[in-house]
Amino acid sequence: MDIPQISWNYQLSVHCCPTEGSYPRTKASQVCGISVQLEMLELWQQFNQLCTEMIVTKAGRRMFPTFQVQISGMDPTAEYILLMDFIPVDDKRYRYAFHSSSWLVAGQADIAAPSRMHFHPDSPASGSQWMKQTVSFDTLKLTNNLLDDNGHIILNSMHRYQPRFHVVYVDPTPNSHLNAQRNFVSFSFPETRFIAVTAYQNHRITQLKIASNPFAKGFRTSDSKNWRLSTWCPPEDRTEAFSLKLGKKKNKALQQ
């Protein structure tokens, strides 16, 4: 039986995409005019064209590229909470076929990991504070530890995810919880979709991360042929290890 190959040639979005399209006028005035611009868009697009992979570990691993945005349209005097969550793109599990350098459907998705939100550590803050600088979620970490008690985002390896960004207006009025649906807006960027992995599968992803991640500068050489890549494939077609034979210190750097 032929295994279907996944097509990744979906439309790229240059601007932010509200998760549910245009927001109705019933949204609070403090949020209905908010717009969000994804930073490092060109870099995200480069990764997206190769099918972005993000490492998950038991201890938690930071994302690269880091999710960063510029926000406009906030009420400068109002307070807002910023947070992120990650939702499955589909109900499939994937595997990487090295002979064809492509991702294939490997079956139905595993049981979904516990859903979590990551709150930006500066929350809550005023609209003027959020808008005056780039908002970076550089403390966010991804894990595959279902028993994680550090607040990291729990994901299943070999599953595809869509990060979502949420802006919540801190309503000071009594019984504000009754207006919860009016006080937030959500945004998602197709360019930031990724497959969670315990080790990089596509060597081109590894090379792009080395070339663009400042924490991996120790891996860079003038001749890309000097990158010695090795993979180990345990049973059941599951590639669980990927190493660059450049020394322990440099392997640690790539984990950033």
Please provide a written account of the structure.
The chain is an alpha+beta fold and 256 residues long. It has two domains: 17-198, Immunoglobulin-like (Sandwich), CATH 2.60.40.820; 203-256, no CATH class. It is 14% helix and 30% strand. The chain has helices spanning 29-32, 41-49, 127-131, 203-212, 248-254; strands spanning 17-18, 35-38, 53-55, 61-62, 68-72, 79-88, 92-97, 102-108, 118-119, 125-126, 135-136, 141-143, 153-154, 160-169, 184-188, 194-197, 229-232, 241-244. Strands 1, 3, 6, 9, 10, 14, 15 and 16 form an eight-stranded mixed sheet that branches. β7 and β8 (102-108) form a beta hairpin. Residues 1-24 and 222-256 have low confidence and may be disordered.
What's the domain count?
2
* N-to-C CA distance: 40 Å
Helix proportion of residues, in percent? 10-25%
Radius of gyration: 20 Å
Structural class: alpha+beta
Net shape: globular
Number of helices: 5
Number of strands: 18
Mean pLDDT equals: 81
CATH superfamily of the largest domain: Transcription factor, T-box
Largest sheet: 8 strands, mixed
Order of helices and strands: EHEHEEEEEEEEHEEEEEEHEEH
